[in-house]
Amino acid sequence: MSKTLFRKGGLGLTAYLDNSATTKPTKSAIAAFENACQTAWGNPSSLHSKGLEAKRVVDEARKSVCEMLSCDAKNIYFSPSGTAANNTAVLGSVNEKNKALKKIVTTAIEHPSVSKCMDALEEKGFEIIRLKPDKNGVITSEQFYNAIDEKTALVSLMAVNNETGSILPFEEIKKIVKNKKSNALVHIDAVQAFGKIPVRASYADMITASAHKIHALKGAGFLYIANNVKIKPRLLGGGQENGLFSGTENVPSIAAFGEAVKESKDIQSHLKTVAELNGYLRKKLSEIDGIRFNSPENALPYILNISLDGIPSQVSVNALSNAGIYVSAGSACSKGHRSETLVSMGLDSARIDTAIRISLSRYTVKEELDLLCDGIKNTLEIIK
Description:
Blueprint: E1 8-9, E2 12-13, E3 15-16, H1 27-39, H2 49-69, E4 76-79, H3 82-93, E5 103-107, H4 112-123, E6 127-131, H5 141-147, E7 152-158, H6 173-179, E8 185-189, E9 206-210, E10 221-225, H7 251-263, H8 267-286, E11 291-293, E12 303-308, H9 313-322, E13 325-326, H10 340-344, H11 349-352, E14 355-359, H12 366-383
Parallel strand pairs: 3-13, 5-6, 5-7, 7-8, 8-9
Antiparallel strand pairs: 1-2, 4-10, 9-10, 11-12, 12-14
Helix pairs in contact: 1-7, 2-7, 3-4, 8-12
C-alpha cells in the first residue's frame, strides 16, 4: 500500500491519527470484500454450490486467524464485532449458580464492552476485583497474582489499553492461575493488540479481536475458545458459528478480515516501523511547551496519550480537525465521559480533561506527525 494512504485530502495534506478508533481498510481488504459480494454472496449455511462457495470464503479467513494465533480452526468463532465477542466471552463463561466460584479479577481500565459486563455480573452477586494501574498506567503481574485464588471464576484483561497503550501482563496470567491452583478461566481482550504484537492461543482460554482495528472493515470480530471450555451463547437463533453467534455470517467483512490478517503477519517489522515513528513524535512533542505525556515509555508505540495544558480535550480535537488532523479525546466508545483509565491512574482533573489520544498505524508517515506537531503548536498559541 502507498505510504501516502492518509495524506492527500481535498484541501491539501491531512493526518489521520485515530487508528485506535478505526483504521482505513487496505486495498486488498476492500478487494476481498468486493469479491465476496460479487462471487460468494450465498448464505454459508446453504448446502448448494453458492452456499458452499461462501462457506469456503469464511473457512479461508478462519485459517488466516488460526495461523496468527497458532490454534486449530475449530477454536475460532466469527462474531459481528469485538463487543459481541467480549460480551459472549465474559457473560457466557461464568456460572451464576456456582456459589464456590463467585469472584472475577479484571482491571479498572477495561473497554466498556468488558467493564459493563462486570457491572452487570456484580449486580448478580459476583465479587469483582478491579485492579488499578499506577500513575504511569502500569498494572503488574504481582497484582494479578495477589488477587487470584481458588474462588476465582474468571480473569479478564485487555492486552493493550486502548487509551494509553499500556501493555498488561497478558502473557503471564495462565501461568499465574496454574501456580495459584485456581480453576479460573482467562479471557484476553486483544482488540488493540491482535496484529500489532504477538498474541498466542496458549496465553488464554478465550481471546477476542476486531476486524476494523487492523485495516479490515467493520462488521466482524472473533472469539477464540480453548478446547474443553464451555461458553453459553448470548445470541440465540439459527446456530451459526457452532451456536455461539447466531445470525447469517457477514461473509464480505469476514473475507476482508482474513485478508487483513495476512497483511498483518509481519508483526515485528511493522512494530519496528511504528516504534520509530513514535520515538520521532515523542521527541518533537517534548520540544513544545505545555505538553505532558500520559502514556508510559514502554507502551505499545501505536498509541500515545498526551495532555495540552489549559485546553479542553474536545477543543483540541476540534481545532486539529479543522486543520485536517484527526485525533480523539479518548476512547471512541466513551464519548462525552471522563476517561476511566486516566482517572484510575490518579491523574488530576485538569490533566484528564485536556488529554488527547494519538494513534498510529504502520502506514503513518513522518509528514503526518510534522503536521500534527505544527497543529498542536498553533492550537496552544491561539487558544491559550
